[in-house]
Amino acid sequence: MKKIISGLTAGVLAFSLTACGKKSDSNTIKIAYLPITHSLAILETADELAEKTGLQVELVKYGSWNELMDALNSGRVDGASVLIELAMKSKEQGIGLKAVALGHRDGNVIITSNEINSVEELKGKTIAIPHRQSSHNILLNDALLKAGLTTDDINITELAPTEMPSALAGGQIDGYCVAEPFGAKAISLGAGKVLFKSAELWEDSLCCGLVLTDKFIEKNTDNAKTFTESYRRAGKNLTKEKALETAEKYLSQEKEVLELSLQWISYDNLDITEESYNILTEKVKKYGLSENPPSYADFVKNDF
């Protein structure tokens, strides 16, 4: 990218439900997440396992992807619901991680100010993404390509998801692409509109994934299997009504924002197929996120 502008404000400090220094016992899995609709399957899984098995999921909440990745890469958590491109980059750099499922399918939108009516009008504008290593970056590139533009034609800033709606409303940025429900939040504020839904740019796009550390899988194989199987079931059970119930429990957003956001996302098929992963790696290389992303065989564990 030609121009990357520093964040408009400082990142939100991470915090967890329990002390970060506490080590998990053999029946506890520490999972990091951000409070976004893309994490609903993991939040639903925590409830299910607590009720039906002796396996406990200790949810550790963070306010930014950088803070979450620091915890994951350093082994302070056993896994995370995370941008799959970030986990791929860590794997590429030698961190022992495996992607065992998706977090969701689709569920992203490109939001712009109300004055912008086409991709062509993004030229020279400032657009926010949560991280360079993200499907939001890929979707933005896909959108620009429709008008013969590239990221050299716009200014890109990296912001925490929670900061984007207010930044758009205040005129510091002209648009953004980010995890939900923060796109829906801008619409509820009257600050922006949807330029593209992710399915219009990249159908069944991959975004967030559930990853576990190699260390946890090797030392707790049975628990890792039980956890992953429960996670997949939780996704299948996340009807729009159930997803809204879980979102209202865990996310500090108005019901109308969550209802709009959940129109754009699905959880019923969380398998990472080789075909879909290869499409992702092609886009990662095409748009300069990585020159050597990990192969499907090295990164994806699909035998749970």
Reconstruct the topology from this structure.
Blueprint: E1 4-5, E2 28-33, H1 40-52, E3 56-61, H2 65-73, E4 79-83, H3 84-92, E5 97-102, E6 105-106, E7 108-113, E8 126-129, H4 135-146, E9 155-158, H5 164-169, E10 175-179, H6 182-189, E11 192-197, H7 198-201, E12 208-213, H8 214-219, H9 221-237, H10 240-250, H11 255-261, E13 265-266, H12 274-286, H13 296-299
Parallel strand pairs: 1-9, 2-3, 2-4, 8-9, 8-10
Antiparallel strand pairs: 4-12, 5-12, 6-13, 7-10, 7-11
Textual characterization of the structure:
With 304 residues, the protein is α/β, with parallel strands linked by helices. The chain folds into 2 domains: 4-9 and 108-201, Periplasmic binding protein-like II (D-Maltodextrin-Binding Protein, domain 2); 28-105 and 205-299, D-Maltodextrin-Binding Protein, domain 2 (3-Layer(aba) Sandwich), CATH 3.40.190.10. It is built from 13 helices and 13 strands. The protein has helices at residues 40-52, 65-73, 84-92, 135-146, 164-169, 182-189, 198-201, 214-219, 221-237, 240-250, 255-261, 274-286, 296-299, and strands spanning 4-5, 28-33, 56-61, 79-83, 97-102, 105-106, 108-113, 126-129, 155-158, 175-179, 192-197, 208-213, 265-266. The strands form 3 sheets. The protein has a 6-stranded mixed β-sheet, with helices on both faces. Helix 1 links the parallel strand 2 (28-33) and strand 3. Helix 6 (182-189) packs across helix 11.
